[in-house]
Specification:
The complex is a heterodimer of chains A (111) and B (116).
Chain A lengths: L3 E4 L2 E4 L5 E7 L5 E7 L5 E9 L2 E4 L6 E3 L9 E3 L8 E8 L5 E3 L3 E5 L1
Chain B lengths: L2 E3 L4 E5 L4 E3 L2 E3 L5 E8 L6 E7 L6 E3 L2 E6 L4 E6 L8 E9 L8 E2 L3 E6 L1
Parallel strand pairs in B: 2-12
Antiparallel strand pairs in B: 1-4, 3-9, 5-6, 5-10, 7-8, 8-9, 10-11, 10-12
Classes of the chains: A mainly beta (111), B mainly beta (116).
Chain lengths: 111, 116
């Protein structure tokens, strides 16, 4: 079945450490996205990519970085510059007609 | 800039009651999409509906119905005869219709609790 796979499901990060969240899709979608969700809040866009080797900052890109070397993959790195990284992270992809598919998410906790 | 407002933070109803979740949006785009998603405690987003701004027809799907009114920039969602399994956070979202990557702008969500 086609879909988006996010890993790991849970991730713990020490202060000052960089961590990378994986997002893989087999839907052949060009566009991919990373969203952050804090408790009691909606999803906010971190980064998005329209095509391989291209990506754009979203509303809250500071402290994050991404790459898009393959169409299927859009990993997100949470750097030590992100002062409050504890959150739920969702990856998504979309068709040109605006149909979105979301992954099951990664819960990141700073310990 | 786009904005989606879900003024109801939390709603509690008793099973079998009808409940309406409000959504008001702002956009300068003339063509856009509106969405509703359900987020159960497990966290994944479950797609419920997408509506094109050209189509103001109301839609019914089983116990779910949606009322899109462009004149008031609202896209409200009604659950008829609610069930305990409907308990979740519900998000309304908006995206522009053009371009190859369309960012979804989400409301802050409404936590619906259906009591047995």
């Amino acid at each position: 079945d086609g879909g988006i796979t996010q890993s790991p499901k849970y991730l713990f990060r020490k202060e000052g450490q960089n961590v990378t969240l994986s997002c893989e899709q087999n839907l052949n979608h060009d566009a991919m996205y990373w969203y952050r969700q804090d408790p009691g809040q909606g999803l906010r866009l971190i980064y998005y990519s329209q095509i391989v080797n291209d990506f754009q900052k979203g509303d809250i890109a500071e402290g994050y970085s991404v790459s898009r070397e393959k169409k299927e993959s859009f990993p997100l790195t949470v750097t030590s510059a992100q002062k409050n990284p504890t959150a739920f992270y969702l990856c998504a992809s979309s068709t040109e007609l605006g149909s979105y598919t979301f992954g099951s998410g990664t819960r990141l906790t700073v310990v | 800039a786009q904005k989606v407002t879900q003024a109801q933070t939390e709603i509690s109803v008793v099973e079998k009651e009808d409940v309406t979740l409000d959504c008001v949006y702002e956009t300068r785009d003339t063509t856009y999409y509106l969405f509703w998603y359900k987020q159960p405690p497990s966290g994944e987003l479950v797609f419920l509906i997408r509506r094109n701004s050209f189509d103001e027809q109301n839609e019914i799907s089983g116990r779910y119905s949606w009322n899109f009114q462009k004149s008031t920039s609202s896209f409200n969602f009604t659950i008829t005869a609610s069930q305990v399994v409907d308990s979740a956070v519900y998000f309304c979202a908006l995206s522009e219709a053009g371009g190859s990557a369309r960012q979804l702008t989400f409301g802050s969500g409404t936590q619906l609790t259906v009591l047995p």
